[in-house]
Amino acid sequence: MDCAFWLGIEGNELVDRLAKEAAVEDGPVVYDRTPREVIIMQEKENEIHRWQQQWTKAGKGAVTKAFFPSVRNRLRQKIPIFPEFATMVTGHGKLRSYHHRFELTDNLMCPCEEEVDEQTTDHLIFQCKKLHNQRNEMIKQIKNTGGNWPTMNETLVKNYLDFTDLQ
Fold first, then answer.
1. How many CB atoms lie within 10 A of CB 104?
2. In sequence order, what DSSP letters do the residues of 97-131 get, joined into one string?
3. For the whole model, what pTM was predicted?
4. Do 66 and 152 form a contact (C-beta atoms < 8 A)?
5. What is the dihedral of CA 64, 69, 73, 77, to 10 degrees?
6. What mean pLDDT comes out for the span 44-50?
7. CB count, 10 Å around CB of 64?
8. Domain-by-domain residue ranges, the chain?
9. Containing H/E element for 26?
């Protein structure tokens, strides 16, 4: 539009003057309130930070922390919860090491061929001879997508777990 069009419109001069005043650092504060959305975002960030500090300092949940060390990353993941998955990422459930902890069984060793390791989540994922074929398939899929083996538990859940096959 032509500049001459704006010259005669009432209020343009006032708008121009206020814009110039706002651009000057030492000028009067025209608006000093923080938008509601900014406050909400800041508070969410503060709460996630506090939650992460508590999570990191907690003396319990070592198995779960190996899969989910970052509260923020866990919150971003859409994970359907089902018993087998919960058992693996918590170290609870049908694991002999867990049952032994509560004196539900005398034997905490895995029934795989060597019986030298406790039946824990890490043993099942990385060592158990009874799961050799499944592990080899998983390793093959990971390497085909450019990943490395062995990998961290967090990486397994974040990058390689396909929940559509597990439901």
1. 9
2. HHHHHTTS-S--B--STT--SB--HHHHHHT-GGG
3. 0.71
4. yes
5. -10
6. 97
7. 20
8. 8-57, 60-165
9. none
